[in-house]
Amino acid sequence: MKIVAVTSCPSGVAHTYMSAESLELSAEKMGVTIKVETQGSSGIENKLTVKEIEEADCVIITNDVEIRESQRFKGKKVVKMSVSEIIKKSDTLIKKLQTMFE
Question: pTM for this one?
């Protein structure tokens, strides 16, 4: 299973990176491939490529503000959660997605 994700919070600092780390740790623990793009105060980092998006089974968007370039995900299965929610529930979300796509 392949997942791509975008994280962004209002200040674009701590919670953006905390939610990215939470997703990466949960995915690694469960044997899921994930790439997380962060949209923080320093702009877009670890930007997702067109190929990565195309190959992904699902897109996770964790944001408390509008993300940049959201049109890239048109036609993909998108799951949206708040940044604070994903920090607490990333394991649960990854497990649920695994059952949906495997």
Answer: 0.92
Count Cα neighbours of 92 within 13 Å in the Cβ-side half-sphere: 6
Cβ pair 47, 35 in contact under 8 A: no
CA 65 remoteness from chain centre? 14
Average pLDDT by consecutive 10-residue portion of the chain (102 residues)? 93 84 96 95 92 97 89 96 93 94 75
Within 8 A by CB and 6+ apart from 77, the residues are 57, 58, 59
- Reported as half-sphere exposure (CB side, CA atoms, 13 A), residue 36 has a value of 24
Task: For residue 74, give every residue at least 6 positions away whose Cβ sits within 8 Å of its Cβ, in sequence order, or none.
Answer: none
Residues designated catalytic = 9
Alpha-helical segments (H) within 3-82 = 14-29, 50-55
DSSP 88: H
Phi, psi of 62 (to 5 degrees): -115, 105
Q: What is the dihedral of CA 75, 7, 67, 61, to 10 degrees?
A: 30
